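Q: I'm teaching a short session on how sequence maps to structure, and I want students to see two examples side by side rather than one. Could you give me a first protein with its sequence written out and its structure tokens following it? Keep the formatting plain so it prints cleanly on a handout.
A: Of course. Example one:
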Amino acid sequence: MARYFKKMVGTKCYLSPVNPDDFEKYTEWLNDPEISQNLLVNDKIFSLLKEKEILEDMAKNNDTTFTIVDVNTDKPLGNCSLNNVDNINQTATLGIFIGDKEYLSKGYGTEAMELLLDYGFNALNLQNIMLEVFDYNKRAIKAYEKVGCKVIGKRRQAKFFNNKRYDIIFMDILKDEFLNIRE
């Protein structure tokens, strides 16, 4: 059984450093078209070996990537991370997904986002956190808006999926906006 450590804890879930022993679960999630269609890696194929190497590398070299874990069952649900952390300009990009379909649309992603944003703004002292989302991913857009993210622009027809073109929406949140929502 994989071990998890409660780095940031909410009422539904907590964020734990990535455990490479979860490579089979991640491989299942990332190869599931229903999950991967909303991710930037949806055109990639993930083998067990490749995913194991990726998770091992994350565990060794990336201290801003976390497994989202159910607080009551210690079951891994997905992943979230702060990428491209720029300490001088105090910026980062955010990525998140819930891989376990039983946990979709139940508030786990929203809470994980809040925990990750809190970590980014308060522990890492970031000023601006940005993300990208495909305009067909309405569930994610709703969750991002719920935590205070705002649309800052879009790249028109930049996503080709299922023989259709979609916009990539750019959203961000500032430290003051995040802190004011929580007061």
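Q: Perfect. Now a second example for contrast.
A: Example two:
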Amino acid sequence: MDNCIFCKIIRGEIPSVKVYEDDDVLAFLDISQVTPGHTLLVPKKHVPDIYAYDSELATRVFSHVPEIARALKAAFPDAQGLNICNNNGELAYQSVFHSHIHFVPRYSTDDGFKMHWANNADQYDNASLTAIAAKIKAALAEEDA
């Protein structure tokens, strides 16, 4: 896409600090560096989000996740953990609409990165969870059809 900032980075029209590249993907440092080592992995093919992936593209992109994670662990041994995030849609905090995976090394609880998972277990019983699972299973069956 002509206007996509990540496509421009892939084409070399905008500079980036690359950490890995092959025919399918580019990994580069996020300019915001939420924490030191914050890296983005993007497919070279423009897809807006995870919903646009086919299984081949998913295999080519996501197969690089473990190797980049291990490289970050080796490069930053003082990191105590690693968040790997893929945001899809504006409500889910996606700000660039070219699919990308964030790798955020974690150094402490006050390193600038926050995630909060609500615990709503008291709002669901087995029947409601079974109903939710049935909806997902039906959608998966349609996907496979």
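Q: What should students look for in example two?
A: Point them to this: The mean pLDDT is 96. Also worth mentioning: The first strand starts at residue 18 and ends at 21.
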